[in-house]
Amino acid sequence: MIEFQNVTYAHEKGSGVNNLSLTIEDGEFSFLIGPTGSGKTTLMRLMYFDLLPDAGRVKVNGFSSKSITKRKIPIARKSIGMVFQDYKLLDDRNLFENVALPLHVLGHSAREIPERVEEALELVGLEGKDHHFSNELSGGEQQRACLARAIIKEPDILLADEPTGNLDPVASFELVRLLETIHETGTTILMASHNYNLIKGRGRPIYELKDGILRGR
Amino acid sequence: MDKFFYLITEGMKNVWRHKMTAFTAIISLFISLFIVGLLATAGDNTHKVLQYLRSKYKIEVFFKQDVSNEESVGLIHQLKKIKGVRTATIIEKEDAVRIFKDQFGEDIMDILGYNPLPVSAVVNLSRTSRDLIRVEPIIKKIRSIGQVEDVRYQGNLIKKIERNYSRVIDRFPYLAGIVIILAVLIIYNTVKLSVYSRKELIRSLQMIGASRMFIKLPFIIEGVFIGLISSLLVYPALLGSVKAINYIFTNFTSWSIRLSFNPVVWIWLFSLVVVITLLGSYRAASNFLK
Questions:
Q1: Shortest Cα distance from B211 to chain A (angstroms)?
Q2: Are B269 and B239 in contact (CB under 8 A)?
Q3: How far apart are CA A196 and CA A206, in angstroms?
Q4: Distances from the Cα of B112 to the Cαs of A43, A67, B149, in angstroms?
């Protein structure tokens, strides 16, 4: 469960989130919508403890921003998968190595990893491309690779920050469908977007953020 | 165990993945280690050079005219007993005539009709002492022998050589210290730049949930690996330099000095680089992760 209680965070250059309260239940698939600079990324970063609130409390999977230490942050992130608008794939490693990275972090055995990577790549439709480097993949493929890297560790929560920001409409639509497939396994998903047309009519909760304030659900 | 093995291989793979950065780091490290190694080898050979120069020190002792060849044997024993004297060789009256003829091309017996040259001795000083040789007390003791008429020696030259050796020995630790500090700074900054150039990788690893040690270990392994490559390259370079210097001495100078390369110098450099790269990469990665 993700819980925000009167959370405020202000960046040095302004914007952020202001007195925000929000609860996302386990297994929920919800969207976060708002214009650029509305605080979507700040909200996501607070969820994976990349930022700690100036006021209020963030609670994710039992980890609280009030009590979390630097050492515990990596542990908290082990159950959170992240997908970024700019992919954040490592360009000096091939697709297999990129996707396998979280499993190495979690200490999985070397024998188990190839099979798990193959499964993840198959799920996102990138089978057979495991030796490709990120510059040999299209934008859509890179985003799916990023998704494979996020889901390979079977996270409880998947946070997708503007994952369709650099994709064409078809690739964007496919990605959302892929997220829905992943959600069927019980993963809690929160996807941030500023493209209302992409997320409307899906029967999912939509949180609207404007100027750091949650406008409604 | 798999995780640890993965991190070790990642550290080594990183050297290949970032060939240019690794190449620059290896070259900078190599140059620093080479300078330190040369300095250490020079220090190690300083005494050998001094011994060579000391072997050239010569004291000529001329005895009084009435000292016979037989009497001079006893005097030679007295000379040898003086502290700092290594050898003393008699030059009998007849030998002196021959030497005169060799040097001037004329027989003094033909010119004067008698041999005016006294019995003399050539004294060589002990050259192995690590301490400064003070020639004046030795000369004083030689002069105190009643039968000695005159003593000739290269006083100023000996003083200069001994003084300069003393200067080098006194300043060497400071010079070596400065070079080592510079080498440490170069190594540390090289590793630091290498870590900073991969901030994207570090950020991605943090996002995935990698612990600080998981992020740091490949950098440490990579740093040490680069250090090991550099130190392995330094060995033949130092050995080659010593051989080249010896070749120059043998073929282009009249100096009969053979410098040697002590493998202990390399072992010392090897250990130094392991410690520095280990601490340097650990510190650089830790600073970045603060």
A1: 6
A2: no
A3: 10
A4: 116, 112, 21
pLDDT digit of tens for each residue in chain A (217 aa)? 899 999 999 988 878 899 999 999 999 999 999 888 889 999 999 999 999 999 999 999 999 999 999 889 999 998 999 988 888 888 888 999 999 999 998 888 888 999 999 999 998 888 889 999 989 998 889 988 998 999 999 999 999 998 888 778 888 888 888 899 899 989 999 999 888 888 888 888 999 998 888 876 6
Query: How many contacts, defined by CB atoms under 8 Å, are there between A and B?
Result: 53
CA distance B222 to chain A (A): 15
This prediction has a pTM of 0.71
Q: Which long-range contacts (CB under 8 A, 24 or more apart) does B161-166 make?
A: B161/B50, B161/B53, B161/B54, B162/B132, B162/B133, B162/B134, B162/B135, B163/B132, B165/B46, B165/B50, B165/B132, B166/B132
Tokens 């929160």 — which residue?
A190
B208:A101 CB<8 A: yes
